[in-house]
Amino acid sequence: MTSQTYRPPTADQIGRAPKVLLHDHLDGGLRPGTIIELAREAGYEALPEQESDKLGLWFREAADSGSLERYLETFAHTCAVMQTRDALFRVAAECAEDLAADGVVYAEVRYAPEQHLESGLTLQEVVEAVNEGFREGERRARADGNRIRVGALLTAMRHAARALEIAELANSYRDSGVVGFDIAGAEAGFPPTRHLDAFEYLKRENNHFTIHAGEAFGLPSIWQALQWCGADRLGHGVRIIDDIEVAEDGSVELGRLAAYVRDKRVPLELCPSSNLQTGAAASIAEHPIGLLRKLHFRATVNTDNRLMSGTSMSREFELLVDAFAYTLDDMQWFTVNAMKSAFIPFDERLAMINDVIKPGYAELKSEWLFK
Ligand SMILES: O=c1[nH]cnc2c1ncn2[C@H]1C[C@H](O)[C@@H](CO)O1
Ligand SMILES: [Zn+2]
């Protein structure tokens, strides 16, 4: 065996590798057992299953519909049990704990405050409960020997009309735990420009935002998100592939928009498993991430909704390693891309890359020498 031999990272190494997560929904990542307990406490009787394994399976199967609209229907159950301060605190704390146990060192977790007002909480109370939960989860992780930092992204629902209000909310908490803004929900029929006032406001405030675009709808959505709204990153953005042509001889031609996205280093928050469920890709092996990585787009790997996809950051990387024979160097590349694209200040991103991510991968990459 020479040092040139391909050594696929083992599942254990993938688990221990430092990982960075930019696209994860708080209401898409609850533990099934927690949903059942919270539903009992809240008197919510519409859960389709009462046993946690069965409930987890139900979410995965119900989300496996091939349509974003039907996929989104499953969130009615998670949002229903996230209506009190204690429930939000618990879900946020467990989220940080679960991510840290999976080797995630930095995460931006998003949710839509407007979906958590049914029991009388104010928008501010929602944000504060989630922030306190994240801090608690960070502390619990530390007690378990794991290190993680979690920032919140506030999402506005694109079918609703509260985007400016939520953008103002995000801005008012920018120094206390909220690192940016997003819009989510059904994409077809709800173009990003519908919320232009929110994006223009955030730009005037020198604040950061990402936009779900190019998931269920194609290039026009990506184009609007970037050129009309000024998004810093693209949530998914996977359909940028429609603007890339690969000829029979393997030569590649980028259209104007794809060239812009690559030239400007626009981060793509790719979510492979989620895309299989909503129909944006047929299999992991056929997922555009393979080509986008080869072409050096600023691609990142994300979970989207751990509950609905039955996934984790480690699992997403395991699937990619199987499909594309990725190495620890590839994993490091995706992870550094993600850290470069995070919404926290430059000096913190740099320290994360140089003092946490690179040493973590160096340690893993040298293990074969001592076997
Ligand atoms: O992948 C997605 N695309 C669009 N919207 C999504 C996706 N995953 C979750 N959402 C929605 C449903 C949640 O209730 C909301 C806030 O997290 O965001
Ligand atoms: Zn999403």
From TrEMBL:
- What does the note under cofactor report? Binds 1 zinc ion per subunit.
Superkingdom of this protein's organism = Bacteria
Q: Detail which positions bind substrate.
A: 25, 27, 185
Instruction: Cite the position(s) of the site with description Important for catalytic activity.
Output: 236
State where Zn(2+) binds. Answer: 23, 25, 212, 304
Instruction: Give this protein's Gene Ontology molecular function annotations.
Output: 2'-deoxyadenosine deaminase activity; adenosine deaminase activity; zinc ion binding
Q: Which GO BP terms sit in this record?
A: adenosine catabolic process; hypoxanthine salvage; inosine biosynthetic process; nucleotide metabolic process; purine ribonucleoside monophosphate biosynthetic process
Please state the Enzyme Commission number of this protein. Answer: 3.5.4.4
Domain Adenosine deaminase per the UniProt entry, residue ranges: 18-358
Q: What class of enzyme is it?
A: hydrolase
Q: Which cofactor does it need?
A: Zn(2+)
Q: Which InterPro entries match?
A: A_deaminase (IPR028893), A_deaminase_dom (IPR001365), Ado/ade_deaminase (IPR006330), Metal_Hydrolase (IPR032466)
Describe its function. Answer: Catalyzes the hydrolytic deamination of adenosine and 2-deoxyadenosine.
| Family the entry assigns | Belongs to the metallo-dependent hydrolases superfamily. Adenosine and AMP deaminases family. Adenosine deaminase subfamily.
Which HAMAP family does this one have?
A_deaminase (MF_00540)
What name appears for this protein in its UniProt entry?
Adenosine deaminase
